[in-house]
Design a protein that fits this description.
Blueprint lengths: L17 H4 L7 E10 L6 E11 L4 E5 L6 H8 L7 E6 L2 E2 L8 H8 E4 L11 H6 L9 H14 L15 H13 L5 E5 L7 H18 L3 E4 L3 H6 L2 E6 L2 E7 L1 H17 L1
Parallel strand pairs: 3-8, 3-9, 6-7, 7-8
Antiparallel strand pairs: 1-2, 1-4, 4-5, 9-10
């Protein structure tokens, strides 16, 4: 199974992610009544208790809550790193429960970008080679893959640092490389787990502005787990979690402005 796209859609990394071009399709991510319990310890831990969540294409959504509220468990379910005990996960209207288990890794590689707090860059590889990593086990012309890597690095303003190793980069530059790696396959959604957690406030602010810019310029969808209020303020919507449940969803000023702009466009089209 693959997410359906219009045949006329141009290559996605040419400055336009497909998430911006397919706004008439169903929500990019939808969770219905998702439960997850971990039974590794003597006392089972109910990490998720009937979570329902919808994320539209081109949205930036922040997931917040205290430690143990279920944020990372939710992100792992959305990122197909874990499976719910109960409930359904949909990508672009497609039920992933119907996806054959052997196809899940390839689907995840192509359609889910990940940004980790620890960055997870390979120290013996250059910035270019780190961004190229997702292509190692995919088919296609090497020249095309290299072009995609160059474009991803351009989007995060790291082309001039592409031949540098991680130890030669600042914390912010490393995170920019991690963002480029998450974008290189032109995924349906990018998931970020505390992307500013290990950065100082100034560098963290730069990374937030970078994700905000990518969202606005390419339509890339972001779902971000964070404790950082500045990250939340940059998002369209803030989802608050507690004890494995979503207890509140609030639309930010930015999100309200986005909704108003979309409504205005629809009125003009009628």
């Amino acid at each position: 199974m693959a997410i359906r796209r219009k045949k006329s859609t141009p290559p996605r990394m040419k400055g336009k992610m497909f998430t911006k071009q397919d706004e008439k399709l169903p929500p990019i991510v939808e969770l219905k009544n998702v439960h997850r319990t971990y039974e590794e310890s003597a006392v089972p831990v109910k990490a998720l208790r009937g979570v329902n969540l919808t994320v539209d294409r081109g949205e930036m959504v922040a997931i917040m809550g205290p430690s143990g509220s279920g944020k990372t468990s939710l992100l792992n379910i959305i990122g197909l790193l874990d499976n719910p005990d109960e409930g359904r996960v949909y990508y672009a209207g497609e039920d992933l429960d119907e996806l054959k288990r052997r196809k899940i890794p390839m689907f995840r590689q192509k359609e889910v970008g990940m940004i980790f707090q620890q960055k997870n860059l390979i120290p013996t590889l250059t910035a270019f080679e780190n961004v190229y990593m997702p292509f190692r086990y995919t088919r296609g012309k090497r020249s095309y893959k290299r072009q995609q890597v160059e474009e991803a690095l351009r989007l995060v303003s790291m082309v001039d640092r592409k031949d540098h190793f991680p130890k030669q980069l600042s914390g912010g530059e490393k995170q920019r490389v991690a963002v480029a790696r998450s974008l290189v396959m032109s995924p349906a959604v990018v998931l970020a787990d505390e992307p500013t957690g290990e950065l100082d406030s100034k560098t963290g602010d730069q990374v937030v502005k970078l994700m905000e810019h990518l969202n606005e310029s390419t339509g890339q969808t972001f779902i971000i787990v964070t404790h950082n209020e500045l990250v939340a303020e940059a998002c369209h919507r803030v989802v608050q979690m507690k004890d494995g449940q979503i207890i509140e969803t609030a639309t930010s000023k930015k999100g309200a402005a986005r909704s108003a702009a979309k409504a205005a466009v629809k009125r003009k089209q009628k």
